[in-house]
Amino acid sequence: MQLTERINRIQISPTAAVIAEAEKLKAKGVDIADFGPGEPDFPTPEHIKKAAIRAIEQNFTKYTATGGIMPLREAICAWHKRELKSNYEPKECVVNVGGKHSIFNAVSVLVQQGDQVIIPAPYWVSYPDIVKYAGGTPIHVETRPEDGFSVKANVIEKAIGPKTRMVILSSPNNPTGGVVPPDEYERILAVCKKHKVWLMSDECYSHFTYHPHKPYSIASVADSKEHVVIIGSMSKTFAMTGWRIGYTLAPEALVQATVKLQSQSTSNPTSIAQYAALEAMRGSMDSVPVMLAEYARRRRRIVDGLRAIPGVTCEDPGGAFYAFPNVAAHLANGTAGSALAKNTTELAKLLLDKARVALVPGDAFGAPGYLRLSYATSIERIEEGLRRLERFFSRAEAAA
Ligand SMILES: Cc1ncc(COP(=O)(O)O)c(C=O)c1O
Questions:
Q1: Is residue 398 part of a domain?
Q2: Residues 232, 294: one domain?
Q3: What three-state secondary structure class fits 310?
Q4: Which residue's CA is the closest to the ligand 1 atom numbered 3?
């Protein structure tokens, strides 16, 4: 079938592909240790679910303002101010259909043919494809495990050229868990200001940071607004992945352009989900530290377990809920001498077929030699998965 050149520039999200493959096996009754999904395994908190039920009962089931109901835009600004020390007004806020949609819209209104967008690698799978779909070219810069995968301002500055339009950062990062410390973030902002480049800051994991890191937003810096696009999401912080509510905080003209785009595409985010998000923003956040404490416990177990496997190294992730071990020693030409697979894509397939462990190959994130394991799963399943990985890497099953 003839499709547009535009749609052929992008591919289906590799994380979605892995999850689909694991789901197929699970449907056949195969017991999979599943480290694939990038979503909380906790249910959405009760008070948020009840707000959605109330919204249905009160017939808030019609179109809303395209950019989201005003109380929600006000509540997002107030929440962001309280939690992350920013200073936005509702006219600088638009509600979108999840954080991915927020990014898609902001890139669509700012990036055009010939523009370059700097994306530190390892990167979240959707950034490069969203940029390509808009006609831009992703330019990847390196982050290093010895820096905790935090990108440096001088590395970004070196990559900036006349065509650079934007830098996209996520901190905490998916897939590495890397956190950009506030002083480095401010240096990156200064570089962006100097070169008149937009800084897009993806804060989807802002509230899942581990000691000594704390939730932080570059929007807390005075005079940052003109250069910064903040992307936020209800998905991770409030275990609301399926509700599809994200937001953009940005200069008014950019918000208006996004509303225009939404008015000709999605229209408003689902009315009921907006009322649930309103409760998330205004109500108790007691569930957040409870989830964080559990993630911290699992993080310790999975990182220690991975480190105990010969030939595997793993940094402590500073935030989010992913472990990102380096398994290059087990690939062809690797130092472990096991040569289990050519690359991590092949290795991930072997792990699913032979060891019944689902995870995402680093190749998908521009990180050959790495694997991403989501620890948003129970400690029992983590233990089981670690047992399977230990057996696999000791070659018993891989060679079978
Ligand atoms: C770094 C990052 N940004 C944004 C998103 C988008 O999340 P959502 O569209 O559910 O808000 C994700 C989801 O996995 C993510 O990992």
A1: no
A2: no
A3: coil
A4: 204
**In this predicted structure, what is the pLDDT of residue 389?**
96
Alpha carbon 327 to its chain centroid, in Å, reads: 22
- Residues 121/98, Cβ–Cβ less than 8 Å: no
Ligand 1 in contact with 202 (CB < 6 A)? yes
pTM: 0.95
- Residue 202 CA: which ligand 1 atom is closest? 3
**Predicted local confidence at residue 334, as pLDDT:** 81
Q: Whose CA is nearest to atom 14 of ligand 1?
A: 38
d(CA 56, CA 51): 9
CA of 30 to the centre of ligand 1 (A): 28
Do both 294 and 275 map to the same domain?
no
pLDDT at 396: 47
Q: CATH number, domain at 204? A: 3.40.640.10
Distance, CA of 181 to CA of 160 (rounded, Å): 21
Is 72 contained in some domain? Answer: yes
Q: Find the domain containing 36 and state its range.
A: 5-43+287-393
Q: Is residue 195 located within the same domain as residue 270?
A: yes
* Same domain for 245 and 372: no
| Phi/psi of residue 292, nearest 5 degrees | -60, -40
According to the model, what pLDDT value does residue 190 have?
98
Q: Is the CB of 124 under 6 A from ligand 1?
A: yes
Alpha-carbon distances of 384 from 32, 244, 356, 387, rounded to whole Å? 10, 31, 11, 5
* Residue at 399 is within a domain: no
Residue segments in the chain with a per-residue pLDDT below the cut of 70: 396-400
- CATH number of the domain enclosing 341: 3.90.1150.10
Q: How close is the Cα of 310 to the center of ligand 1, in Å?
A: 32
How many Å lie between the centroid of ligand 1 and the Cα of residue 99?
5
- Number of structural domains the chain divides into: 2
Q: Considering the domain boundaries, does residue 400 fall inside one?
A: no
- Classify burial at 1, counting beta carbons within 10 Å of its beta carbon; exposed 0-12, middle 13-18, buried 19 or more: exposed
Please tell me whether residues 131 and 227 are part of one structural domain.
yes
pLDDT of residue 19: 81
Encoded tokens for 322:
């992913």
135/120 Cα distance (integer angstroms) = 19
pLDDT at residue 332, rounded to an integer: 83
313 and 278 part of one domain: no
Ligand 1 neighbour 38 (Cβ under 6 A): yes
Per-residue pLDDT at 400: 43
The residue type found at 352 is: L
- Beta-carbon contacts of 253 under 8 Å, excluding residues fewer than 6 positions away, are none
Ligand 1 pocket, 177 CB below 6 A? no
